[in-house]
UniProtKB/TrEMBL annotation:
Residues 35-54 are annotated as: Disordered. This is MBL fold metallo-hydrolase. GO terms for molecular function: hydrolase activity. It comes from Micromonospora endophytica. The keyword Hydrolase applies. Signal peptide: none annotated. Keywords: Hydrolase. InterPro entries: Metallo-B-lactamas (IPR001279), RibonucZ/Hydroxyglut_hydro (IPR036866), UPF0173_UPF0282_UlaG_hydrolase (IPR050114).
Length: 258
């Protein structure tokens, strides 16, 4: 996608720079070593820290927060950054918890980022289900984000958010054309729930990308936490096995390097 730069900070955290905008996703900046509770008998230890500290990133214009209630998407240091951002966009439930001027969206609702001397960016919330069927009352609300602005030639920039493959997320390629996708992976699992997954497996990621057919696939949310059951190697194997060259669209960003 022309004139777009994505910097992977770690986990789901990325800095998106486009047309004068600086947009941060799911800020996680705590140091490694701590174990965090995720509720209902689940927890995870943070194994690696961010590739950049917040002060090394500088001011941002907006934060896109897929959900506020799991520390692998919003940890303590990341939470401090919310007050510094002019705009925070998250779920309806998250906006109620965070308060202030946080914008809350349901799936397929839109809001617009507007600024002087910059093109407006339309942010559309996309569906997520952060676990197996019927798990939403337990795992809570999550959304992804599709970004569209004047001058795009090949489609939107889509951030999937933490989701499994289910009918809701399959709606995305039916309703919009995707040029670049930030793909949340990790095949999240917890001992208490056995083999159930709470984010995309490598195989499901392949199936989703076959539906979406993006020109560029950027994996995120696959490293740095103990509850991620699949990392880069599993994803590379799954995409390499596709007969249609889908793996050639994978772009692994060095942590912190644009």
């Amino acid at each position: 996608m022309k004139d777009v730069r994505v910097t992977h900070i770690g986990g789901p955290t990325a800095l998106i720079e486009v047309s004068g905008w600086r947009i941060l996703t799911d800020p996680t900046f705590d140091p490694p070593g701590r174990r965090y509770s995720f509720g209902w008998g689940t927890s995870s230890r943070k194994r690696t820290g961010p590739a950049r500290r917040p002060e090394e990133i500088g001011p941002v214009d907006a934060i896109l927060l897929s959900h506020d209630h799991h520390a692998d998407n919003l940890d303590d240091r990341g939470r401090e950054l919310l007050a510094e951002a002019p705009v925070v966009i998250t779920t309806r439930a998250g906006a109620r918890r965070l308060g202030g001027q946080v914008r809350g969206l349901r799936a397929w609702e839109e809001t617009v980022l507007e600024g002087d001397d910059r093109p407006a960016i339309t942010v559309t919330a996309t569906p997520c289900r952060h676990g197996p069927a019927l798990s939403r009352p337990i795992v809570g609300q999550v959304i992804g984000f599709a970004l569209a602005w004047a001058g795009q030639q090949h489609g939107v920039l889509w951030i999937t958010g933490d989701t499994v493959l289910y009918p809701g997320v399959r709606q995305v390629p039916r309703r919009m054309t995707v040029d670049t996708v930030l793909l949340h992976l990790g095949a999240v699992r917890f001992p208490i729930s056995g083999g159930l997954h709470y984010s995309l497996t490598a195989a499901d990621a392949v199936e989703l990308c076959r539906l979406v057919r993006p020109r560029t696939i950027i994996p995120v949310h696959y490293e740095g936490w103990s509850h991620f059951s699949q990392g880069r190697q599993a994803v590379e194997r799954a995409f390499a096995a596709t007969p249609d060259g889908l793996g050639e669209r994978l772009h692994w960003l060095p942590l912190s390097a644009p």
